[in-house]
Amino acid sequence: MRILCIVGVFHVLTGIGLAVSQEMDWKFLFDGETLDGWSIHSGYAKYHIEDGAIVGTSVPNSPNTFLCTDEEFSNFILEFEVLLVSPELNSGVQFRSKIAPEALTFWIRDNEGHPAPRKIPKDRVYGYQVEIANEEGGASGGVYDEARRAFMIYRPIAGSAAFGAFKNNQWNKYRVECNGMSIKTFINGIPCADFEDAITSDGIIGLQVHGVGEDTTPYQVKWRNIRIKELDN
């Protein structure tokens, strides 16, 4: 009996040690108090900290704006929570994305298969973006190629669980998994995107405030609990 108890205690302690080790593999990208390790690119939207969350606020006549990590990541699991304070504001989170060091031109085929140039200015953020949009649109969890191919690589199918995974007026938990060519996204535990793409293998994480044209309304989006677990590959 005593031996069995010792074995049982050993298994419990081993399980606790494994759980602690797995939890320590996570790195918080936002400390809840400062924007250390982040910088703004592409536009002029405002970012500030409020109650342990990053708040992005739109401004008129600004291009899409991105608060980006200074560090780049390759294979990882990214998790964060987001609250779309203003359902009118389209948003998203960049991953494996780049910041143009100078004006760049991408050659993309149009709808008829003809190659056409797409030009972006210096400091423009481009690359994969997991969508954040209101519940009615159903695009949340899809992946858009921001400023590069400029189309939805993967979009939830109307009527699917993924189409209704995002909820208005509440915090939504996102998960993005990148491992080699595999890209997967989840919202509130519901699988959304699942595809393979090899155009970019590493890059920054960026929080987007979409441009709103001349609209002077200060639309807002909030993020919190932004953490990442890098994968060995």
How are the secondary structure elements laid out?
Blueprint: H1 2-24, E1 27-28, E2 38-41, E3 46-50, E4 53-57, E5 65-69, E6 76-83, E7 91-99, E8 104-109, E9 115-120, E10 125-132, E11 143-146, E12 152-154, E13 172-179, E14 182-187, E15 190-196, E16 204-209, E17 220-230
Antiparallel strand pairs: 1-17, 2-5, 3-4, 4-17, 5-16, 6-13, 6-17, 7-10, 7-16, 8-9, 10-11, 11-12, 13-14, 14-15
Could you list some keywords that capture this structure?
mainly beta; 1 helix; Jelly Rolls; 44% strand; globular; 233 residues; 8-stranded antiparallel β-sheet; 7-stranded antiparallel β-sheet
Q: What does this entry look like structurally?
A:
The chain has 233 residues and is mainly β. The protein has a single domain, classed as Exo-inulinase, domain 1 (Jelly Rolls, Sandwich). It has 1 helix and 17 strands. Strands 1, 3, 4, 6, 13, 14, 15 and 17 form an 8-stranded antiparallel beta sheet that branches. A hairpin with a 2-residue loop joins β3 and β4. The protein is globular. The chain starts with a helix and ends with a strand.
